[in-house]
Amino acid sequence: MEPLRAADPRQIGVYRLRARLGSGGMGQVFLGYSPAGRAVAVKVIHRELAGDPEFRTRFRREVAAASAVSGAYTAPVVAAGPDDDPPWLATVFVPGPSLAEAVATAGPLPPPSVWKLAAGLVEALEAVHSAGLVHRDLKPANILLALDGPRVIDFGISRALEKTAMTSTGMIVGTPSFMSPEQAEGSRAGPPSDVFSLGGVIVFAATGAGPFGHGPQASMLYRVVHAKPELAEVPGGPRELAAACLAKAPAERPGLAALAAAAAGRVAAAGDELSSFWPVAVTGLIRTHQARVATEVRDGLARLSPPPRPAGEAGPPGGTAVAPPTAPLAPSVTAAATRRSTAAEPALAVIPGPTAVSTDPVPGPALPADRVTTGPPGGGAGPGLTRRRVFVGLAVLAGAGLAGAGWDLSQAGAAQPGHPAHPASGIRPRAAGRHGPAAQPGTSPPQAGGQRWAFPAGGVVTGIALAGGRVFAGSADFAVYGLRASDGRRLWAFRTGGPVQSRIAVAAGIVYAGGNDNHVYALDTGTGRKIWAFATGGSVASVIAVAGGAVYAGSGDETLYALRVSDGQKLWGASVSGVNGIAVADGVVYAAGADDMVHALRASTGGSLWTAPTGIGGTSQVTEAAGVVYAGSGDGRLHALRAGTGGKLWDFPADGAVQSQIAVAGGAVCFGTNGNKVYAVGAGSGRQRWVAATNGPVTSGIAVAGGIVYAGGNDGTVRALRVAGGSPVWSFSTAGPVASQIAVANGTVYAGSNDGSVYALAG
């Protein structure tokens, strides 16, 4: 949907809508204002649901019940129009990251904070249950962190989706990684279901990962019902609490009263350790949100007209003026809502829609209104990226297979003079790595590992590719960027309809990217102009490969697509569950599936040549070299298979899930694991050559150039190690996990960070 302009006001109830913030399984969420100027988030129900009489009845009942919920740790409904056309629901805005974003940015919470979080969530669930509701979708993205504790959002409303046309064709309401066994099996979900989800949230808060790993929906649901939760990394006290909550049988889970007593005892025993509700890093993140919201509401949102184009500034290619949005589209509805605020403290909040998980293909949305913006000299914010804007920063939890989002209001484009805090996270990117300062104008080039430049995108950077002196980056801020490789100057930005989540590829003057707007895009590398876009039935988060006149991409609709390079026409689609990695060689497409298999398919037709099992936990990535296919798996093994038959040559046992990409060079296979290691294994023998320890899971792309292997990790560090021996050459620290592709050219290493920046480092 187009951004709403000041000259085109739209209204729901008494609220004037200003911008579309996102959409979910139930409806779209808009930023709106009350007659007195109070910022609110208004959820407008999808028309196909609004036309369902049974949905309207359920929605009316659930809204009435939700409106009666009050408690220190819940976000109450402030207004609703269940009988309007279309129905809607509103809540006040307050600043603060989601638990998902906070853990992605600041790391897992220490045990004292986990106990306080648990106590607050139990109190919130008591308020929800006392109103006769069951949350049904308690997860990190539905928990906002305020200075004085958590706030639970989106309680109870998801039940309105039950027994509608939307859920009668294979859709399940909930989030698989935090869903209870009874939800996964389609049984009645009562209050004990929320207790199970609470256990999953506790595990996530303490470790940064869910209790049942990650993978395709079917695999996740199976593990929720049948597998034991993974609790080894959870500290002792919270581990016992989580284990009790995660009992498979509802009757075996503790009640909220018992949980409240247990948490209260631990909180009281902690004493002065909990003088602040959250760790310092999380408190700082919350304050950053608060300050930015206050500034944006006061100075920016009252003026929704686009800024005037500076004299002489170039417009988009082709001579057609592209109107910049007055407020940006937001990458997710899973955002943040908290308590009401005082008049002296502007408040922003949103109640997102429940996650609708489908095991059947779902038609993709209509192609969003995309636009290309060109950058002004110096790489600052250009047309289409307004000086003041509101967006949701998607926090990708690398290595955990989870994603959540938190509200973030920020400056866009490049950091402005005197305003160096990063626009997406509110965290100031470090100016240099551990070895060598960043280069300054007029100084000598940085030494190895030093920063040449950093470009601030508006969100987590997921994909990096190089071609023709340009760097291409995909970001969670709904954009693909074209940057000049020499100095990071923004050449263009292409706006998509959702976060760019795929790895990206470039070939023959075209850059390819995919995202959770269910599209694969082909863009001109020189101008950013869209050449074509192909709609899939699910989000595109896989590697994208280009070979032999075809583009290959995996989608959340459990399909591997082959698309014609010239016009994006579908050549074929093959059923592959949860495509992660893709490699193409000698007329064969190799796909890593979350179904614990490597699939070999004919590139010409998509016909199956062979499949080979890897291990439980899904096949993460795949590559081919010299007639051998190398694949990593979630059970912590690297597999070597014959390219022609899929026969096993060897497998190597690592110490954690293989989530990084895989590179082969100099007779060595290099990869990283969730066990905080980078390995080099003999390509022919499968024997370990060396192993290097890191301070976090290694989930990035792996690049090898000039005898050096480059890897990024969840500790926010890019590392350079010698292929011969694994000794460290240099390391560079960013302000967030490094999970993007890594590219190397002309003595420069390019990587993206979850802090929202693209970095160019001296190699």
Characterization of the model:
16% of the residues lie in helices and 33% in strands. The chain is an alpha+beta fold. The protein has a 6-stranded antiparallel sheet. The chain is globular. Residues 1-9, 160-172, 299-369 and 376-441 have low confidence and may be disordered.
Any chance you could write out the topology, listing elements then pairs?
Elements: E1 10-12, E2 15-23, E3 27-33, E4 39-45, H1 47-50, H2 53-67, E5 79-81, E6 88-92, H3 99-106, H4 111-130, E7 143-146, E8 149-152, E9 171-173, H5 181-184, H6 191-207, H7 217-226, H8 236-245, H9 256-270, H10 280-300, E10 356-358, E11 371-374, E12 388-397, E13 402-411, E14 451-456, E15 461-467, E16 470-475, E17 479-484, E18 490-495, E19 505-507, E20 510-515, E21 519-524, E22 530-535, E23 545-547, E24 550-555, E25 559-564, E26 570-575, E27 579-585, E28 588-593, E29 597-602, E30 608-613, E31 619-625, E32 628-633, E33 637-642, E34 648-653, E35 663-665, E36 668-673, E37 677-682, E38 688-693, E39 702-705, E40 708-712, E41 717-722, E42 728-733, E43 742-745, E44 748-752, E45 757-762
Antiparallel strand pairs: 1-2, 2-3, 3-4, 4-6, 5-6, 7-8, 9-10, 11-18, 12-13, 14-45, 15-16, 16-17, 17-18, 19-20, 20-21, 21-22, 23-24, 24-25, 25-26, 27-28, 28-29, 29-30, 31-32, 32-33, 33-34, 35-36, 36-37, 37-38, 39-40, 40-41, 41-42, 43-44, 44-45
Helix pairs in contact: 4-6, 4-9, 6-8
